[in-house]
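Self-study notes.
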Amino acid sequence: MTVVDVAAEVVANRRLSDDYNVVELAAPEVGEAARPGQFVMVKASAGFDPLLRRPFSIFEVVRDAAGRVTGITLLNKRVGVATALLSALRPGDRVACLGPLGRPFEPVDPPAHAWLIAGGVGLAPFATLAQELARRATSTTLFYGARHAADLHCVDLFERLRVRLVVSTEDGSRGDRGFVTVPLERELHAPGGTRVHLYACGPIPMLRAVAGLASRFGHPCHVSLEQVMGCGLGGCYSCVVRALDGSRTPHYVRSCLAGPVFDARDLVWDELAQGH
């Protein structure tokens, strides 16, 4: 795997709402090597607060009119110091960017259907996955959940890729009222016999629920964990999780190396849930 460390120039910073934005970075070396579901470690400031880089899923691989890769984008939600710095970036600023890192998603081919389940900023790894699925002509559905309708972003990007959209909000302001698992379970109950592969990213309780539904209905499921990481290269051991090996024996793995994408059957969900 090719990993590069670049001082990427900010090309644009598109505001989606008070808390959400999409930052475009001129990092063609990263974009060329990136696969769906991989991430980068970024630092938007030369100072010591924060001291370490933070992980962000690669949202889009950007191409010019001739199809050449020119960089990547990051979907950011402002929740702390690092994300606030990323929110405030301006064109011409520089960002330390290391990547692409981690285990990617493996897209399925027809006749299988791909169902993407995103909670909030968990939408981030699915733009590149949806693009790859579209290239393979795989039928794709995005189950997208958020607290409010105002927190649903970049829907048009998926619509352009002919992704079927199923929306839910916790307050009922758009789509189904409740968690994203409400419409997911309803559609899993629907008769058909279609072979479905589930891909999920979001908070641990949501991922655990999706994994349970996948097991109950007999569908394969891969999840992308949003673990806190200090280095992204496996050196700091800050992102360890318990997983099952080939003999189904629990052991610790570093999610920056063994993940962030895991087969949902291989994770020890009880221990993951205790940390959230």
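Second protein, same conventions, sequence then structure:
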Amino acid sequence: MFTKYLIVASKKDKAGVNITTTLSQFRPNPVIASMKESPVFDIYVEDEEIIYTESLDLSRIRKYDFIIFASRHQSKSGEKTLSIHTPGNFSDAQYGGVKGKICPASAIFQKQMFENLHKLVKEYDLSGYSITLEATHHGPLIDKPCLFIEIGSGETEWADRRAAFVIAKTISDTINNFKHNQYNEVAIAIGGPHYCPGFNSLQLESNLAISHIIPNYISPITESMIKEAINKTAEEIDFAIIDWKGLKAEERANVVEILEKNYINWKKTSDIEN
């Protein structure tokens, strides 16, 4: 499904530079890799911030099957965080991209990266960091399947070499061992807060693979948003998963009406077996 990967970071981003510098040690010899028909990745470090589409060399990006943005994460809480999400804007585009447009996502790749990140944090005893999915947000807008993997949330964490090593190895291991697992159920996710506690557990512990996440602060959730999330998922969607308690009653009714009107199956998070 994916064989050529591009890792993108910004020179202005300490975490991104830290990750890509560390990632260089995992890069295989391209000649040997081609002989073995192994997946390959290249590294592209941009001068400007990578959340802005106009900063990127799109002709270069289009030569690859999958794009991984290595980046810093910022939050008001300052919590030590390792996070994964697909870029795009369901509503306004305050931080790059285009209003109402999101990037293609691979639920299967995102799931396997999330699983590998958890595994390696434990293996290398990287204590103190929370690991989380984030709702789909910010730019850039590109036409290739992609995701962000980030270290947060401040200067100390961005410069943390052990965190950068774990992220770099997560990227390398996921690329080298990626399997298009046809037995996973694939879903878009709707509701809940930005850091997705309900969806985190399902992505890690169940058979479910989640692509785009529309959070509860996007309101009202519209038919076009839901269709955009489905259309921008590389795999065929089996259903929408709803964080039932993470939506107000009026919004729940609205979402269910949209889904049923469009013959889209849906389940509550409580319906999924971990």
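Instructor comment on the second fold: Strands lie at 4-10, 40-46, 66-74, 81-85, 130-133, 146-153, 185-190, 208-214, 239-242, 266-268.
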